[in-house]
């Protein structure tokens, strides 16, 4: 019958999020449960984002998935977790007898997924966060399921749960073994701090040498600093960061952001064998930011680095033009940013 064989199609976008209190380390690898909470800022929809189209149809023979135009292995366990959980919710909704839910939640429907990023994949720019958030949201739309989906996105990639919400988002680690309390929550909407700006300084668009998943696994096994961080540093830092965001206190926000990025990279160095995500350009940017802030005796700019050398800069709208000029002065575009740190103009 035409109504059941015609594919039901939805397209959604999800933005990248940048953690300012970073997630690093799992206590459960399958459910993706973290050893500490984290907090991030979700970018706007029109910036770094994933766009995913999901089609469901009874005429499709098998589930299939394409990423940036190339077919991916649909049997990937994390992809399977997300598909299974969405279908479970769809079945539950149908069994609960919600009106109009039978047509779109047929269990005989197979799914075709097409996903594209508008930025380099796996260059430490949180592509998996936007990717799985978008996948889960699109699947939910296609199968007609609602509610908090962050616990499902989490099972695709930990950081993805935070991209399910806009603005300032915390991922509460939770303490249950089944993970039901390990979910994302919005701390403040994006409208809360309209002057806040994020700049991405691309030091390298190459794939990172060590993926986050295996990197954090080795860190959990070998780093005593990571254990200390999770138990004694992050809980306190989460409280301070939430207060800084609520008060729009940029100086406090900047200091915690930079210290947390530095401690994350310190735990990478404390991992055995050690993991290096920063390169010489990253280090030059760190120095530049501290000299810039030192010049004004005030934290006007903050850096943050994830599992790669690219810098994410947080600042306020009024400082963007000058800071961009400073960056362009020290990293002229044709030099790839190498060996171009000089003195700050005074
Ligand atoms: C974060 N990162 O909080 C931290 C900071 C990288 C450094 O979340 O294994 O890709 O899929 O849960 O989410 C990268 O880890 O790892 C990450 P999985 P994910 O944004």
Automatic annotation (TrEMBL):
GO cellular component: cytosol
Pathways involved: Steroid biosynthesis; cholesterol biosynthesis
Catalytic reaction(s) noted: (R)-5-diphosphomevalonate + ATP = isopentenyl diphosphate + ADP + phosphate + CO2
GO biological process: cholesterol biosynthetic process; isopentenyl diphosphate biosynthetic process, mevalonate pathway
Enzyme class name: lyase
Keyword terms of this UniProt record: ATP-binding, Cholesterol biosynthesis, Cholesterol metabolism, Lipid biosynthesis, Lipid metabolism, Lyase, Nucleotide-binding, Steroid biosynthesis, Steroid metabolism, Sterol biosynthesis, Sterol metabolism
GO molecular function ontology, one term from the record: ATP binding
Superkingdom of this protein's organism: Eukaryota
UniProt keyword annotation of Lipid metabolism present: yes
Keyword ATP-binding applies: yes
Chain ranges of the Diphosphomevalonate decarboxylase-like N-terminal domain: 14-184
EC number(s) recorded for this UniProt protein: 4.1.1.33
All residue ranges annotated as the Mvd1 C-terminal domain in the record: 198-346
Free-text function comment from the UniProt entry: Catalyzes the ATP dependent decarboxylation of (R)-5-diphosphomevalonate to form isopentenyl diphosphate (IPP). Functions in the mevalonate (MVA) pathway leading to isopentenyl diphosphate (IPP), a key precursor for the biosynthesis of isoprenoids and sterol synthesis.
Protein family (similarity comment): Belongs to the diphosphomevalonate decarboxylase family.
Name used for this protein in its record: Diphosphomevalonate decarboxylase
């Amino acid at each position: 019958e035409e109504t059941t064989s015609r594919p039901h199609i939805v397209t959604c976008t999800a933005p990248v999020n940048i953690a300012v209190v970073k997630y690093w380390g799992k206590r459960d690898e399958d459910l993706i449960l973290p050893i500490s909470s984290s907090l991030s800022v979700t970018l706007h929809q029109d910036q770094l984002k994933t766009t995913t189209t999901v089609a469901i149809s009874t005429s499709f023979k098998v589930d299939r998935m394409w990423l940036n135009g190339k077919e991916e292995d649909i049997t990937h366990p994390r992809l399977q977790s997300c598909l299974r959980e969405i279908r479970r919710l769809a079945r539950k909704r149908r069994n609960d007898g919600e009106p109009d839910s039978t047509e779109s939640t047929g269990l005989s429907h197979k799914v075709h997924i097409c996903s594209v990023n508008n930025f380099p994949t796996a260059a430490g720019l949180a592509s998996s966060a936007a990717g799985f958030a978008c996948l889960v949201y699109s699947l939910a739309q296609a199968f007609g399921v609602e509610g908090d989906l962050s616990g499902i996105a989490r099972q695709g990639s930990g950081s993805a749960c935070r991209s399910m919400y806009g603005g300032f988002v915390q991922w509460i680690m939770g303490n249950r073994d089944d993970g039901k309390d390990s979910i994302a929550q919005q701390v403040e909407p994006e409208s809360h701090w309209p002057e806040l700006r994020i700049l991405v300084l691309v030091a390298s668009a190459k794939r990172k040498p060590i993926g986050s998943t295996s990197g954090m696994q080795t860190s959990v096994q070998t780093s005593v600093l990571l254990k200390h961080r999770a138990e004694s540093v992050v809980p306190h830092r989460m409280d301070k960061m939430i207060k800084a965001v609520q008060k729009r206190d940029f100086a406090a926000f900047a200091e915690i952001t930079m210290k947390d990025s530095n401690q994350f990279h310190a735990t990478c160095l404390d991992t055995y064998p050690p993991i290096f995500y920063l390169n010489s350009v990253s280090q030059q940017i760190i120095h530049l930011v501290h000299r810039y802030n030192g010049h004004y005796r005030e934290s006007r700019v903050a850096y943050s680095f994830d599992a790669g050398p690219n810098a994410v800069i947080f600042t306020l709208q009024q400082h963007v033009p000058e800071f961009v000029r400073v960056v362009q002065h020290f990293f002229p575009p044709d030099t790839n940013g190498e060996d171009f740190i000089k003195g700050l103009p005074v």
